[in-house]
Design goal:
71% of the residues lie in helices and 1% in strands. The chain has 335 residues and is mainly α. The longest helix has 40 residues, at 47-86. Mean pLDDT is 80; it is low at 1-46.
Length: 335
């Protein structure tokens, strides 16, 4: 996608607005003339009346021109919003950079208006996430104008820093219990700044693949897996489907609880939440909402992207773990 954005209303749109303005002026003058006729007292068109009429016509033309300019600007802003909304993460960054001066007060007011008038909660969430992403990218551009933007490798190093010793010894789980919290905090911050893009995910996957091939760095492999899990949990937790009107969808709510939880807590949550254990959600209900969430993820992410793969695999991991727990619980019942 080209990063050069040329926004201008079509000639048909301009002609339409001009004709509407002309029609408005003619209609108004006709009403003024009709009003004079109805009085039954036709007076000579004095010089003072002519001057007043001319001033009034000038005012009407000025108002019409202002309305036309306002309409043109709204069309331009809407076109930019549509392009931002339809862009993938890489294209979004390019568009933000190319149009950084367009993100003024008028842009944010228009985006807020479109968000408020959305008919579906999904569309509203999309606009809210778009606003947050653009805002963070703009802030980052402003704050880092004179700084070197970090590479994907640098970003990954900063995320892993809390769990890697000073001598770069890799141990898992980390010796410091607060290390994971610091790593998660770093991921949240980097994601808000728009740094966890396709380049970052590609770097993590490349490092993970290398660690698996080497076979002698289980700590690094587990660490990188954790990075992807935290990333997926963060993104999937942004959107909730647990409420439909005034109704709480318990299976969706249960899934969202698992999505937000650390992978180490999944077993306990599944045992306590499913009917085979101590809960009220059947395995079939859980499987259904997981598959529905995977479908939504595939629709809302770019096909073949690392983001799509990471999010889908995270959800499939929850499904696989649930199937394992179900087998164990069913086996215990038969004994």
């Amino acid at each position: 996608m080209s990063t050069l954005l040329v926004l201008a209303p079509s000639s048909s749109t301009t002609n339409c607005v001009s004709s509407q303005s002309h029609h408005y002026r003619v209609t108004l003058l006709q009403r003024l003339s009709t009003a004079n006729v109805r009085t039954g007292k036709l007076k000579p068109f004095a010089t003072t009346s002519f001057i007043a009429w001319k001033r009034r016509r000038t005012l009407i033309c000025a108002v019409s021109q202002d309305a036309e300019e306002s309409f043109k600007k709204t069309v331009e802003v809407d076109r930019l919003i549509d392009m931002l909304r339809d862009a993938n993460p890489i294209e979004l960054q390019k568009l933000v950079v190319a149009n950084v001066l367009a993100f003024n007060e008028s842009f944010w007011i228009r985006l807020a208006t479109r968000t408020d008038t959305c008919k579906s909660e999904d569309d509203k969430k999309d606009y809210e996430e778009l606003a947050l992403s653009v805002m963070n990218m703009v802030d980052r551009l402003v704050n880092k104008t004179n700084e070197k933007i970090e590479s994907a490798t640098d970003v990954l190093k900063e995320i892993l820093k809390p769990v890697v010793d000073d001598v770069e010894e890799i141990s898992w789980p980390p010796r410091d219990p607060e290390a994971l919290q610091l790593m998660e905090k770093e991921i949240v911050q980097r994601e808000q700044e728009g740094q966890l893009d396709e380049g970052f995910l590609s770097e993590v996957n490349a490092q993970l693949r290398q660690a698996k091939e080497d076979g002698d760095k289980p700590g690094l492999e587990a660490m990188l897996q954790k990075v992807l899990q935290l990333y997926a949990s963060r993104l999937l937790s942004k959107r909730s489907y647990a409420q439909k009107g005034n109704e709480i969808l318990k299976a969706e709510q249960f899934l969202e609880t698992i999505i937000k939880a650390p992978e180490e807590e999944w077993n306990k949550l599944l045992i306590n939440g499913m009917t085979l254990g101590k809960g009220e959600i059947s395995p079939e209900e859980l499987y259904a909402v997981i598959r529905k969430r995977i479908e939504r993820t595939l629709i809302r992410t770019e096909g073949g992207s690392y983001q799509q793969r990471v999010l889908a695999e995270y959800l499939k991991g929850i499904e696989s773990r649930a199937e394992e727990i179900v087998q164990v619980l069913q086996g215990n019942r038969k004994q």
